[in-house]
Structures are given as C-alpha cells and as structure tokens.
C-alpha cells in the first residue's frame, strides 16, 4: 500500500473512532481505534468501557484470514456491561452482554468469534411456546489477561478463561479454563497445561 493510501486509511479510522465514541457514549482510554464500522447497540443505562491502545477491527483490509462480518458490541439491557482492557486486538467478533462480559488486558481474539453471556431466551419447559416472549438474564463471562482466542470460537455464559490461556480455533467453551493452558474442541477440552 502506498504511503498516501495508508494515511487516508488511518484518517478514516480515526474519524470512525471519534464518531463511535461520541455517538454511542462509550468510555475509552487513549489510543483506542476502531478499524472499519462495527455494529453497536447500547442501552442508555448500559456500560461499554475500552482500555488504552485497544483495536476493534471490523475491516478485512490487511487482516490475515477472512473475516465474515464486522465486530458487534451489544449491551442492550439496562444493566449490561462490556469491559475490554488495554492493548487488546479484537477482530470481527460479536460480544453480546445481557449481563456482564469482562475481557482483560493484552488479549487477542481472532475473527468470527462469538462471545455471549445469555441463551437469548428462558428454557420455559413448562410452556415452550412462551420461549419466544422471554429474555435470559445472562451469566457473566470473565476472560483474564493475556488470553488468545483463535478464529471461529464460541464462548458461552458462565465461562472464566484464566490468565495466559489459549483457546484453539473453532472451539466451543463453557466453564472454567485454567491459566496457562491450551483448550480446544467442541466441547473444549484440555490439550496441554503449562
């Protein structure tokens, strides 16, 4: 890419970042950058906080694998909270908090990953036809510092991923993942512990 095209690309992303932070009332630290335009839904009482030097990437341009869609940040209920730490790189990922999703510092999340803390609807086994009219309250997701999540993963509510853990591409994760471990598969299982 020529220097001129690169400069235009940087300016465009800085304009997008300023617009998103202002229009959606997202709390950010210095150096946060949105590459491309994400999908955002935020309840007026919900909170989205992003730490310094974090990149939210919704652009396939320059990214090493195919990204199927833009990032999504959904905090659509009054008590919904999304917290993303500093120095993270999040690519083409859906983060949907009905309750609370916390992502620590220095995390890498590859494209097409889904992180959602809610089933979307209550089980309603006593009256299954009622499911369509219900909303699940969600179960907190906590991703600690230095976690690397590969492409096309699903992280379900009630999950805690420990410091430095790696989740291999295409995994479905629910439960407690120990620090400094590699987990993968569907359901995700221990591959190696350090």
UniProtKB/TrEMBL annotation:
InterPro entries: Hexapep, Hexapeptide_acetyltransf, Trimer_LpxA-like_sf. The keyword Transferase applies. Transmembrane segments: none annotated. Belongs to the transferase hexapeptide repeat family. It comes from Flavobacterium granuli. This is Acetyltransferase-like isoleucine patch superfamily enzyme. Keywords: Transferase. Gene3D superfamilies: Hexapeptide repeat proteins. The keyword Transferase applies.
């Amino acid at each position: 890419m020529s220097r001129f095209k690169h400069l235009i690309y940087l300016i465009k992303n800085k304009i997008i970042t300023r617009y998103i932070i202002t229009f959606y009332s997202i709390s950010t630290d210095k150096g946060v950058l949105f590459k491309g335009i994400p999908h955002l839904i935020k309840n007026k009482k919900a909170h989205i906080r992003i730490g310094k030097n974090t990149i939210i990437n919704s652009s396939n341009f320059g990214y090493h694998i195919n990204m199927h869609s833009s990032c999504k940040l959904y905090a659509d209920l009054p008590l919904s909270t999304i917290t993303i730490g500093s120095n993270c790189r999040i690519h083409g990922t859906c983060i949907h908090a009905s309750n609370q999703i916390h992502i620590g510092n220095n995390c890498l999340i590859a494209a097409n990953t889904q992180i959602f803390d809610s089933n979307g609807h209550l089980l309603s086994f006593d009256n299954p036809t009622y499911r369509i009219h219900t909303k699940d309250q969600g179960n907190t997701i906590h991703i600690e510092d230095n976690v690397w999540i590969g492409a096309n993963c699903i992280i379900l509510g009630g999950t805690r991923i420990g410091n430095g853990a790696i989740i291999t591409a295409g995994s479905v994760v629910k439960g407690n993942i120990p620090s400094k471990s590699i987990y993968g598969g569907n359901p995700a299982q221990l591959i190696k512990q350090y």
